[in-house]
Structures are given as structure tokens and as C-alpha cells.
Amino acid sequence: MINLQAYANQSRYSSIKAFCGLEYFPPLRPEFCGIARDPNANNIFLCMGGSDPEGGQTKRLGNLLLWSTDRQIEVVFGPAYNDVDTINNFRQNKRFNVHVAPDNIPAIMSKCSYAVSGAGGMLYELAFLGVPAVAVVLAENQNLIAKAFEDMAISINLGYYKQFSNEHFCETISMLDSDKHSIEQMSEKCIKIIDGKGVDRLVSDIIKWVKKMKFSPEEIKAEYNESSKETDEFAKVKWGGSQEKMLNRFRLVLDELDFAKIDRWLDVGCGTGAFQEMVLTKFPAVKATGLDISEGLLEFASSRPANKDVRFILGDFLDFEEGAYDLISCIGVLQKNYF
Hints:
By secondary structure, the protein is of the alpha/beta class. It is built from 13 helices and twelve strands.
């Protein structure tokens, strides 16, 4: 399991290996690459997401910022924000630099000392640039994110927007404005935690984990020959849960790939042949080959009427060197390895 949310940790996944948290957080959109917070930044970034659907918080907090600080305020209205009067009113105030659905949002963020932001995905973007935030929870699913950022001391969590007072918000802003040292400390922590090297760490740690789990081909073959005797098909391939859950992985791939353009297809670890049956029912012209290490599973796969034209091969994919294919799939079969 890979879960890159700030609140994720191994304890949430007691029965499986999980790679969790911000240490693995990947680089963000390409426009964020090469951008960093200006060390002399003095403005405040204000954005409540793409539409600010919860009670017009951009309007509320923008007006409160005018009372709480002398800084210039970079106000971002998302593409779905439809309160034209508020946008026009903000434009008439010289303290606001108004941006509507901007395409240069990293550059706008980088000019800011800190931000007032909804507690969604934007918190990750701000932290990547080293811009600490005052987080406002706009929906229940943002609670865990806001709490995790607060626990890491890279954000101040105001909580649910209906539950904090105007006075508390103004006091928080006044406190930040008078404590540049705290802002800089949070900024340094942001950059340290989300440093853009998460993908490298993730790949490295997955490789290390996989290398610790080596099994011999004989062990894997014996295990699946034994499980192939189970009554339930999903149990034959040791897929936890149910038949429906096992088939869902195939449906996902079928939705993503255009098999109408596939002539020759090799499926490594074809198991019970359920995926072949699913594909060939819709695309009977595909020339399908299924490769598996288990005789028992291949016997079951070849017994499906829809798979009568599928070529099933018993063998190890490391030794398979036959021909060229338009598509090679390997779905949910690398739990155990010997390579």
C-alpha cells in the first residue's frame, strides 16, 4: 500500500506493508519545479480552493486580514468561484492583488511570507515551496490533513471554518506578523519535510523491501498449486476478500486500455484466466497468451469456454523469450519474487 497523505502511517495497515506519509511525497505539478519561496517575501497568500463553496470564506477572511495586518494580500479565486461582486470589490482595494484562475500560482505563492488556505491539497503545494500556512478546514475530509500539518509544526490549524471566531483569526494573524522567527522556522520545516525527493526514497525503499522477500520458484509454484485446489476462484489465486474484489482489478485495466487496438497480448501470471475471459468476451479478435508457473491454475484457466483460443503456457517469465507483443500485462502477481 502506498498512501502519501500527511496523516498516513503504517499503523493504519496492520496486515500489509505500507509506504506512508510525506517522506515519500512526490514532486508536484511541473510548474512548481524550480520555484521556491522568496526569502524576502512579505505578502500573504489567501485561497479557499477552486470554488470556496463553504459560506464565502475568501470574502470573510480577506476582510479580516485588512484589520489584522498591514501586509499586501495575494487573493486567489478558483475557476469555479462565482461571486463576481466580491471579486470586483476586492479589486477596488489596493491592499489586494486579485488573481482569478491564475496559471502562475507557484509564482504567486513564492512571493508570500505565509498563507491562509483551505486544508486540502493546497497545503502540500505551499509546504513544497516553503510557505507555512494558517489552515482552515472547509470539509470533514480535511480534518486529518490539517491536524497532521499542525502536529509537524508546519501549519497553524484554525479548525472548522464555522467554529473559530473572527477574533481568534485576527489574533492568530497578529501573532504571526509579530513573530518572523516562527514563520521562518515553519518555512524551513516545510522544505525539509517535503523536499521533492520523495519518489527516489519510495523507489529505494520498495526495492529494499522486495529484496527481503525472496522465495524460490519451487516454493511459489508449490504454494499456488496447493491453493488452486480451493473451491472459490479468488482463493485459488490467494486474493483476499471476494470474487468481486478480485475482478475489480481487471475491470480497472480494461477501462484504461483500448484492447480494440491490441493484436498480440501476453499476460504474465494469468492465474485462473479470469482476465482473459473478461477481455475476450468483449474483444474476441485479440490473440491472447497466458503465462503462469502453476499447473493447477493453468488447468482451471484453460477450462473456461471463453478461453478456448487462448494459448496458456506453463513457465517462468524470466525464461520466456518468445516473440513480440503489443501488450504485456502483469497484474497483482508480484507479491512474492525470486529475482
